[in-house]
Specification:
The chain has about 300 residues and is an alpha/beta fold. It has 2 domains: about 110 residues, 3-Layer(aba) Sandwich (Rossmann fold), CATH 3.40.50.720; about 170 residues, 3-Layer(aba) Sandwich (Rossmann fold). Helices cover about 35% and strands about 15% of the residues. The protein has 11 helices and 12 strands. The strands form 2 sheets. A 7-stranded parallel beta sheet has the order 8-7-6-9-10-11-12, sandwiched between helices. A 5-stranded parallel beta sheet has the order 2-1-3-4-5. Strand 1, helix 1 and strand 2 form a beta-alpha-beta unit. Helix 1 packs parallel to helix 11 and helix 5 packs across helix 7. It is elongated. The mean pLDDT is about 95.
């Protein structure tokens, strides 16, 4: 019976799905390369979260036919190396788009209304000084990217009466917003939200130069990937009030180190890369990932490939 590696946080649902398709689920304490090699070197499929899955590991897994990233981003998977070794690499696009989009809009509202700061002060029975919430209507929101999640964000925001600016490497048209160049988006927006993949070209695409373009009253929101922002530059920009604040669900290093300055800054709202982890998206992600694994192990092509095995 072919074995399929599944992540522990999807154990309940994936164990059932994998068994229904006639495969043996394998759930380890973690998905570190050393753990996989020691305890499951004969897997035929692997379903992954955000941990690294390098080509060097794939070479040591002779039965491996498919690696699927349970989520949209797949920068942790060496998909090019996989292709060279005849291994499919897939992901689950759109599986959590509504969940992440709703969280994005929620965070923009948290920043606009100063909800987190106000609640924290109230819980600590401290005086709420300089409480200056803003209305969102009439503000300008810049959306970087135009993928599944970004489009949901744009559609949801359209109901708030905001002006929406959009940047994408391949400009299109949208009935909810206007496509503009990079500089225009960052200089004119009151809120900038990031929804592009992590690649060599996008690493640290938001840095001190970018923050200096922004209004001092503007906010940065990141639900894309932590590496999109130069985190050191962002901390300095927040301290120096180059920007007003930030809402972040992703970081350069995850989990976010306990000593990170982002945990201490009062103008930062942070969450632990959890925007896509709703009950509904959890099941949809599992079903999409397992379906592609089953297809490949049954001799078919996957539905959501990110490479083409040679």
């Amino acid at each position: 019976m072919k074995k399929v590696l599944i992540p522990s946080n999807y154990k309940n649902i994936l164990t059932k799905l994998v068994r229904q398709d006639g495969f043996q689920p394998v759930c380890l304490k973690d998905q570190q390369p050393s753990t996989i090699l020691a305890q499951a070197p004969d897997i035929s499929g692997a379903m992954l979260m955000v941990g690294p899955f390098p080509g060097s590991l794939m070479k040591k897994l002779p039965n491996l036919k498919i690696v699927t990233r349970m989520g949209v981003g797949y920068d942790n998977v060496d998909y090019k190396a996989a292709a060279k070794q005849g291994i499919w690499a897939t992901h689950t696009p759109g599986s959590n788009q509504v969940s992440v989009a709703e969280n994005t809009v929620a965070d923009i509202l948290v920043l606009s209304k100063r909800l987190f700061t106000t609640s924290s002060l109230m819980r600590g029975e401290q005086p709420i000084a300089n409480y200056k919430p803003r209305i969102l209507k009439g503000k300008t929101v810049g959306v970087v990217g135009y993928g599944h999640i970004a489009r949901q964000v744009i559609k949801m925001l359209s109901g708030f009466g905001v002006k929406i600016l959009i940047w994408d490497r391949h400009p299109k048209t949208s009935k909810y917003g206007k496509f503009v160049d990079w500089k225009t988006l960052f200089t004119q927006s009151d809120y900038v939200t990031l929804h592009i993949p992590a690649t060599a070209d996008t690493t640290h695409c938001v840095n001190m130069k970018t923050f200096k373009m922004m209004k001092n009253s503007a906010f940065i929101v990141n639900f894309g990937r932590g590496t999109l922002i130069n985190q050191t530059d962002m901390v300095n920009a927040l301290k120096q009030h180059e920007i007003q604040g930030a809402a972040l669900d992703v970081f350069e290093k995850e989990p976010l180190p306990k000593q990170s300055q982002l945990r201490q800054l009062p103008n930062v709202f942070i969450t632990p890369h959890c925007a896509g982890k709703t009950v509904e998206s959890h099941r949809k992600t599992a079903e999409m990932a397992e379906r592609d694994v089953a297809r490949v192990l049954n001799g078919k092509e996957p539905l959501y490939p990110v490479n083409q095995p040679k």
